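HUMAN: Spend a minute on the protein record below and explain its fold to me.
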Amino acid sequence: MKPEFTVNLVSDENELTIRQGEALELREPVVTHRSGVLASPLLWLLKRITTIEQLKCLVTVDRNKLSIELDVHETDPYAPMITGKLEYHPMFITFGVNSGKYLTNYQMAQLFKMNRTAFENPSVAMQLVSDLQQFRAKVDKEIEKQNDNKGNVRELRAQLVTSNLPQAFNLVMPIFKGTKKEVFEVEVYINPDDFTCTLVSPVVNDLIEGMRDSEIDQVLKGIEEIAPDIVIIEQ
């Protein structure tokens, strides 16, 4: 005997559909969390502004992490969350300016040789390649000639390294993804103990500080213009 049951329709619908067989597996709602370039929260709002309640949204800014985060419904764990990040350009990362990353003089020469387009003056790049390739042999020869056999080799090496450092030169490249190319001065620092090299630039520190704030402020201004009721919190 088949089971009997009664269904009371409480809405205005006058049709009820009953399906036999296995029901679909129940699934949790999908959490939508997207990440992209710094302007991603603004770009999302430009297309979806009519579908959200601004007073339930929240924008969080973390300048140290170079990020802007849009929470479309701050009390709903399943609401979309859009994160925009200001990321360093791959070329800038490759050169490792102010990163503390050291390369051998031969590795640094190869880096310059394969990336001549990043130099304001390509001829400077090739001169640096030549200088760096010959650097260690030149210093070793000078140390051998001037060694007084009284334990002063390290001091002599440091003196020669300092006097033979390539002069400052300019690089041309974007610092952050999606930004224009910048011209900035760098120097090659060489460790006298093992002759490894790194690039240092006080100018880049100033550029990064200024660009970080200007790029973030530009996105926040756009958000305020199209969604003035969304709260913006700086961390």
